[in-house]
Automatic annotation (TrEMBL):
This is Glutaredoxin. Residues 14-76 form the Glutaredoxin domain. InterPro entries: Glutaredoxin (IPR002109), Thioredoxin-like_sf (IPR036249). It comes from the Archaea. Pfam families: Glutaredoxin. It comes from Methanobrevibacter cuticularis.
Length: 92
């Protein structure tokens, strides 16, 4: 899967699954950037074919409901939805 990268402070491996049209996903990205967190993201709705299948399969490992935004931190901590206080606590 092709990820977009945002530079910032290294706070571990941070991966955001998002939709390009989702306001909560935009707020999550803005918060990560406000916290100066280095992260990768993928807009699931902008993928297609085999890439989409791969992305959805990976997302489903972390979030069975396949809802957005979903943040995976260090392959063991997952934050589902725009949980501002939780994101700040874990990455702030």
């Amino acid at each position: 899967m092709e990820l977009q990268h945002i530079d910032g402070e290294d706070k571990g491996n941070v991966l955001l699954f998002a939709l390009s049209t989702c306001q909560w996903c935009r707020k999550t990205r803005a918060l990560l950037e406000e916290l100066n967190v280095k992260y990768d993201y993928v807009y699931v709705d902008l993928t297609s074919g085999e890439e989409r299948e791969e992305v959805v399969k990976e997302l489903e490992k972390w979030n069975k409901d396949i809802s957005f935004p979903t943040i995976v931190i260090n392959n063991d901590n997952v934050i589902i939805g725009f949980e501002e206080e939780n994101i700040k606590k874990v990455l702030g």
